[in-house]
User: What shape does this take?
Amino acid sequence: MTSTPTRTAEFRPSGTEVPTASGARTLGTLGRRAAAALSFRTIGAVYVWLLIIVLFSVWAPDTFPTVTTVKQVLNGNAVAGLVALSVVLPLTARVFDLSVAYTMSLTSVLTAHFLVSTGLGPTAAIALAMTAALVVGVVNGVVVVVLRVDSFIATLATGALIQSLITMVTDDSSITGVQLLAKPFADIAQLDVGGITLPVLYLLLAATAIWFLLEHTATGRRLYATGFNTDAARLQGVRTNRLRFLTLVTSALLAGFAGVVFASSVGSGSPSAGTPYLLSAYAAAFVGATQLRAGRFNAWGTVIAVLLLGTGITGLGLATSAQWAASLFTGSVLIVALVLTGGRITLPAVLRRHKAPVSAETGDVSAPDKEFS
Amino acid sequence: MHAETPLGSAGTQETDRPVLRVSGLSKRFGATQALQDVDLDIAHGEIHALIGPNGSGKSTLIKILAGYHHAAPGAAAELDGEPFGLGQVTGSRHDRLRFVHQELGLVGELSATDNLALSRGFARTALGNIRWPEMERRTTALVERFGLGIDVRRPLSTATPVQRAVVAIAAALQGWEGRRGVLVLDEPTAVLPPGEVARLFDIVREIRDSGASVLYVSHRMDEIFALADRVTVIRGGRRIATRRVDELTPRSLAELMAGEETETEHRPRPVSDGAEAVLEVRGLSAGPLHGVDFTLARGERLGITGLVGSGHEVVPYAVCGAYGGPVRGQVRVPERSPRWVDAKDAGRLGIPLVPADRAGEGVIGDFSVGENLTLPLLDRLRARAGRLHRRHESSLAEEWIRRVGVRAAGRGARITTLSGGNQQKVVVARCLAQQPPVLVLCEPTAGVDIATRLQLYDLIERQADEGMGVIVSSSDTEDLLALCTRVLVVRDGRIVREISGRDITEPALVHAMEGTE
Assistant: This one.
């Protein structure tokens, strides 16, 4: 599923309307397209992000607008970004994977356990931990797709099972050891180029892969179709069950990878490594769904949301010593963004009425947007 | 509460005055003039039909009466001589205007008693707990006048469609107490099988006879002739005419609706014998269906019909491998494979289906017109590295939008901004774009206006003439009469009658379905 991307730098937010190189286009269309791509509705979070950067630069002029802060935001949120990306694919197919936080803890403690207690090399330790993540994904897929348990509750249940496994391995205390701080393993998360660590690169690669999959492949289109209307998609030959199963496998693998990176970056295997990332992952995915491809879960929107939330929390940490500010910020951003998505459903309807004279016909039958205000 | 006012006790002067009078009604949505200066008056104790194609403005008219939309200034409305505002306050409506919307607005998991209480409240004791015996007595009193033996305690999802319609009507009529007023029924037969339509008509007449007036919104001319006293035709947001039904013929009404002479009858041409088979089915069983065999010839338009529950509605899903339960039997599509395929694997044959429930199974509401069109064709649009060929995709979408004449703001428009008829064209187009040997349609014209209906008939006929085999499963005899060269009638899960060519007539179909031959 997360096939290796073939192109990296072709990020195009306008989605379906990819201009062709050969097609002659007037400046007018390009201008309109650019305006649409830069409009507040498309990338509102970017403007909010710029606003809070300005805000914190004024509030904490000595500490916030520095290169250190930039590095801190990027390096400090790469793992959170990976976890957030891991839930994007299931969400496009309308599957909730709440077990990602536990999967992440599991791989972090398993990697540490194999390195410290069994003396395996890093490659073998990581391979075994990732195999465990794969098993988790398959179990999730079996419970959700084959046994038809609602994904929300099913992954909560498998999360509890994973937690019991973690406790079995760790006795509820972190696994530490010199092997975790030694060179090849520590480099996974700590090697840096000009202060930017490798996890930032992993984040970019994962986002690019997911973006390519969702925007540019048949599989991506079918995932969205599955999420929007499973019955209709199945009747059109989309193998919805297989896709739902595979999204759960990819989410477990990506969350598992985040756990390995986490173990490398902190130099220990913590039994509760993933717990704080669950809420922020879903917050970022849902805020991300309001960006770029409004109404669709997407990779770059999620990355923007992670950076927005990360910048806010970092800034609050520098500007005030109030411990409660970070959660307040995350909660507020999430509510505001979701209210805006809710509002989005009526907003385009208003615009449509100006553009499309046929819209009066929608009054008939049971169109969902029949409520003109 | 008001005393009962039985029919006839009202004075002559009162009966002459219209119960509802609306005049100068206009409404604009952006650039679209949905209604222009429409007048409507409904007499006491009449069934007044409102007919017009999709997009004609009849839904807007109903929604203004129901208080969902505001009317443009200049409109006036009075009920029994008292003026009232037209939707100036959202959600406000006149208490003597009652509505039953097409979707009925019922909660299937709840009983009739609960559903009635949702709109009118629960009877409670001093402690606040619900007095169930009283609630059930009240509900029984309201629904039993219509007969049908509705169990007021069972969830409505277990009731028949006509029972649900009756519960919706009973819910709308709560607290009415026989006063003068108007009950608005918005296409109530859309969800009813033909056998139950007559029962609903009896109920509508009974409501009229008990002193209420009925505004009956419909797509269907035959219903108007069967039921209505007068009819108002609207088209393009204007009132075209209001006539007594007994002064009209089906042809003259069709002319009023279409604005020009329309060919109301399609003439199916029988296929010449000996045409090769494009689909063979044997021993097909699924749900209510017990062992059905048939063969579809090249260029044939085969109708499959029956009463709801007879099993005919299962045939399309089973043939396409899309039935959600256990299926037995075998299917063969010579063009795909010379071998017989087990019906449970029939999905592999790739026969496209136009499903019955357009919103639930047909379109993907959050997708654009183009994305809906190309969803089953994505495999053909692959470029390097599994990438979707966007340019091919858009030209494919544009081509089919043009070929089937979809009216949309463009391929990028969200599918839900289209009228029901245009959405159906998209659904049919994406099936045709697969260039299948067989096309299967289930209730293809449900909720589709007359003009689009004729276009769909033409489209299907053209495809058949080019050699495609077409199966039309429909409980709408109009589809069968207009479209089919041969009709199989299913009763109790078996094919009981085969009717071909000129023998396909309304009475023949109805008798075969009902088993009254």
In short: Chain A has one domain: 38-355.
